[in-house]
Amino acid sequence: MSTPGGSHSDTLPPITETFGAILLGTFVGLILYGLNVHQTIRYLRNFPHDVQRLKSMVIIVFIVDTFHSVFGVHMCYYYLVMNAFHEDALLDGVWSIRLLAPFTMMMVLVVHGFYVRRLYKIGPQFKAVVIVALCLMLGEAASTMVITVETYMIPTFSEWTRHGWLTAIPFGFSLAADVVLSSTLILILHTSRTGMRRTDSIINVLIVYTINTGLLTRQSLDHRTSSTLRSICPPQNPQLETCPGAACAGR
Fold it and tell me: Global pTM?
């Protein structure tokens, strides 16, 4: 199969800028997944008496992250091993790409839910913040599901470029929820300073922990998925007739 006026190789973007970038990103993602495995095992060993709800949340995040990593490995194997010499296959989507978005959403929502519950338990004065965060989470879930459905319905790259702006919506909801939750928790900790050096030092550590586990960690996860999808479908190649990744399943 060839495109009018030339072969697929004339219109395919350089593989180093698409699947090569995804391969490197998958390597980095697997390193982070290894850290997740270590932290999960260490938590279950060191805190066996935690409430079942908290342990279940940790296990759910671990399972979902496992599937997310498997999808990345499958995607690389499918395109770079099984179909390395089949240019037509490089233009077609595979199921693992389409599932990246909803599984990423599940991980982010579980973490957001943990922070929302934490705020809710602090006091009723944060009820408005909790409601805003829940609305943002609902918007993130709804927009991600819409995009996931669209990736199955839009077969060509040229069609998807007209809907590419949709991918920014769930990221916007996620970022807004991160800012609301993390900034509120940081404000609570900051106003809890007592003037005692030892206590304030502990609070500083908690503030750094909130930033690292709140805003930075979740946005790095979102960015990993976003980078994967944008690498497969670079907008500077509108000549492609079929979108690699069945319209770049993305958030």
Answer: 0.72
Q: Which of 57, 48, 43, 68 is nearest to 111 (CA)?
A: 57
Spatial contact of 195 and 167, defined as CB atoms under 8 Å apart: no
- Specify the pLDDT at position 161: 65
Which of 24-33, 135-144, 202-211, 223-232 is predicted with the least confidence, judged by mean pLDDT? 223-232
